Amino acid sequence: MKPRDEFEKSVARLSRRHFLRRAGAGAAGAAVAFRLDLLLGPPVEAAPLTSGQPAFPGAFGRLFPTLPPFAPATDAVHAALMDMGQPGGLLDAQDDLTQPPAALITDPALSVNNPDNMTHTAGTHFMGQFMDHDMTFDATSPLGQPTDPTTTRNSRTAAFDLDSVYGLGPIGSPQLYDPNDRVKLRVGFGGIFEDLPRQTDLDGSSDPTALISDPRNDETLILAGLQAAFLKFHNHAVDYVRSQGRGDPVRVFLEARLLTTWHYQWLIVHEFLPLFVGQAMVDDILENGPRFFTPHMGRAFIPVEFQTGSYRFGHSMVRPSYRANLHGDNGEPFFGFIFDPSQHPEDASQPPLTDPNDLSGGARAPRRFVGWQTFYDFGDGEVKPNKIIDTSFSSPLFTLPLRTIPPHTGPVSLAQRNLLRHITWSLPSGQAVARHMGITPLSPDNFSDLTGYGLGFESSTPLLYYVLREAALTQTTQPTLVPSPPPAPTTTRGGLRLGPVGGRIVGEVILGLLTADHTSYLAARPAWKPVLPTRNGSTGTFHMVDFLTFAGVDPASRGQ
Predict the structure, then answer these.
(1) How far is CA 558 from CA 26, 372, 542, 549, in A?
(2) Per the omega criterion (within 30 degrees of 0), is the bond before 555 cis?
(3) Nearest-CA neighbor of 428 among 145, 144, 64, 82?
(4) Confidence (pTM)
(5) How many Å apart are CA 518 and CA 253, to the nearest integer?
(6) pLDDT tens, 405-417?
């Protein structure tokens, strides 16, 4: 019997209404001892059409529907936003890209306008980006043209359910799965270590197109490596479930998927969200409930004030360059700019280089793998930091390769694209949101750099710019996660996390998506704790380094 036939026959034996009996002894069984149809999902009814609510399931919505736009959609406003976000403009950190990529990491004098955040490791941003691609994808709204978000479809599910990894499952998305073991995900090879599966793996062609549910997860080498880590994590979870005595392929797949998803959600709640908004904000929302984002069970949506106005804070955390690995480049470290326009054809229809010198995705070569000790702390002193959260973006982000932009059209400045989306969604100003929340807004003096436009932006500021400036002005003390001479247990300064407005929006939406999803551990079993093995043998907790170790992509497994 072919593996796929066995899987499909098992699907036919089980219906959506079956219950998963107590799966017997073993941690995997304890983790998923409730309805088997959790991951199949209940029917979704349309939400009542009220102001700000999606017009149909799967559309975007508004968090503050009564607040007016920060500015009218005039040519003058459009031109001002383009000026703010242009190369060399207000948001450009002015990194010296004539210097080698390694120098921008090791020489602090080259980062005066783009300081490091020693309380975030370099991988914090990439996990945040992976989370974004798991819950939201606007593939249709026109950039800089007013559009109703409540009638605009979100191409991802508004949940942290890893649909960006699993697609429609082994039957609906067979190209994502191992043809020899249909409950496992397909992993690509061809370099020194694993890669995303690519078209070349199917037909032997030179086509490097990744076979993944969301093509954005091949935008950079690091993000592609993180997606590959999730593929391997699930496959090892399959082995773990089988070791507990499970045999039916559907049960094996669903238990492995649930284990993978719940450990991912645990990392969001216990590791990454506190880095974004602060532990106090997380605790307040969990203990006292949300104040502004309260979706009903099964009716969660992505508010555009979150999607564009707040969560894109992560773009300010990106470094201009990274060390991708320690020994991949002919035994030497592989350093590269996150993007380098000289490494990409101007015509997006032209094939990319097979091994560019930057850290863009879409290519397979021996050196193109991730040494995760650069991005997360394995205790070997090799981890590097993020950039602080402020109104400066690293300079490579102002000349994105066209192929990394889903419609393959300009502008190529990420800052310009972010700002123009404020017109697309008619977003309110940061000051208006602050007042609505009962928070004293920042004074116009804090936005004196915007007065030259003569449009009142200093008093009615684009929401994302407000959130970034608010973070930069919010002095906090946080544990230092990146070793630095001399060792410092804590760092105190602005820009270490989001401020009260940005933090409240991001915290409430992320936790709201989890609690409104009947398949999440927060909704289905809030007292659940991780059950998979950790690096040090502890139980009941789980960190990103444990995730990478279980996936088998950690430095020890690599021998690097």
Answers:
(1) 29, 10, 21, 10
(2) no
(3) 64
(4) 0.92
(5) 19
(6) 877 788 999 999 9
